[in-house]
Amino acid sequence: MIKPKVCIIFTGGTISMTVDETVGAAIPTLSGEKILAMVSNIDKLADIEVINFSEIPSPHITFDMLFNVKKLIIQKLDQDDISGVIVTHGTDTLEESAYFLDLTINHYKPVIVVGAMRNSSELGYDGSSNLAAAVCTAISKKAQNKGVLVVLNNVVNLASEVVKTNTLSLDTFQSPYGPLGIIDTNDLILYRNIAYREFIDTDKIERNVVLIKTVVDMDDSLIRASVELGAKGIILEAMGRGNLPLKVFEGVKYALSKGVLVVIVSRCNSGRVFESYGYGGGGKELSNLGAIMGGEARGPKARIKLMLALGKGMTKQQIKQLF
Ligand code: ASP
Fold first, then answer.
1. Which domain of life does the UniProt lineage start with (predicted)?
2. Under CATH, which number does the domain 5-190 receive?
3. Could you tell me which of 136, 205, 272, 298 has the fewest CB atoms within 10 Å of its CB?
4. Low pLDDT (below 50) residues in the chain
């Protein structure tokens, strides 16, 4: 029987780390080949092509790197012999990179982003089981046309929804509406389908987009400073349904008067923002003023979406539609 072929692009993260005795902490040391050697029996499921892209922790990931990873993924997906592509990645910024890839790749074949919460010097290293589950997902026809998927702890989540919720637990990656599915005995079991996929066809990103979290009794100094520093867009993590303290509201007025796009999302863990409140700084007022209500998006992902939309040169009206 011909085995499916999967390409794995190794970028680094805890999945590639060991504890360095002189440093006394984990650092990236393992090549793709070394990581794969710990995944027993994987060769029975698929042929694997290894690409050692980088060995870096995910807080060091840049958009330049992500555009290169994206190009590489599309190149591989376009190959007839490749069933799917896997990217190994540190978990700290995994949800952002996975979402970036989700928004910029429009292909039916599966793309999986995988990491580990324990490095290979720790008891119970989860890198091997996570990578095995990622391969099972990448070769499954059921994973096709689902956008980019995040696989850890035998659970398959959508890149567009998933969030790292805990600094330590193996089940840290959670989606507000539950996972897309699980891996059970090497098979992808789907719990649900996806509602829609978004695609922003661009090779450019607007870097001057800031994310600001609002807190009680905050003033407008961060917004004003961002505008003075040349921000093209501001993502505001507002309160609850999308409401702001009065001084921050003044800052929004200022930013909008200078032509800066302001997107309102919520600092809550889940739920949409909406024009529910009509008081000063409430969602209705913000929307009337011309701020864009960011719907379901959480701050870090909304930032990436706005950066790509501005990079593509979309108009304010198109960006409003997008959100
Ligand atoms: N700090 C690590 C990283 O993001 C954490 C991990 O991979 O789990 O690279």
1. Bacteria
2. 3.40.50.1170
3. 272
4. none
The residue whose CB lies within 8 Å of the most ligand 1 atoms, and thus the one to mutate among 11, 19, 58, 122, is: 58
Q: How far is the CA of 173 from the centre of ligand 1 (A)?
A: 13
pLDDT value at residue 209: 98
Enumerate the domain spans of the chain.
5-190, 209-322
| Cβ of 16 below 6 Å from ligand 1 | no
Task: Encode pLDDT of 225-269 as tens digits.
Answer: 999 999 999 999 999 999 999 999 999 999 999 999 999 999 999
Ligand 1 centroid distance, CA of 117 (Å): 7
| 209-322 under CATH 3.40.50.40, yes or no | yes
* Residue with CA at minimum distance from ligand 1 atom 3: 90
Please write down the HEC assignment for all residues of the chain.
CCCCEEEEEEEECHHHEEEECCCCEEEECCCHHHHHHCCCCHHHHCEEEEEEEEEECHHHCCHHHHHHHHHHHHHHHCCCCEEEEEEECCCCCHHHHHHHHHHHCCCCCCEEEECCCCCCCCCCCCHHHHHHHHHHHHCCHHHCCCCEEEEECCEEEECCCCEECCCCCCCCEECCCCCCEEEECCEEEECCCCCCCCCCCCCCCCCCEEEEECCCCCCCHHHHHHHHCCCCEEEEEEECCCECCHHHHHHHHHHHHCCCEEEEEECCCCCCCCCCCCCCCCHHHHHHHCCEECCCCCHHHHHHHHHHHHHHCCCHHHHHHHC
Is the CB of residue 91 below 6 angstroms from any atom belonging to ligand 1? yes
209-322 matches 5-190 in CATH topology: yes
Active site residues: 14
The minimum-distance atom of ligand 1 relative to the CA of 116 is 8
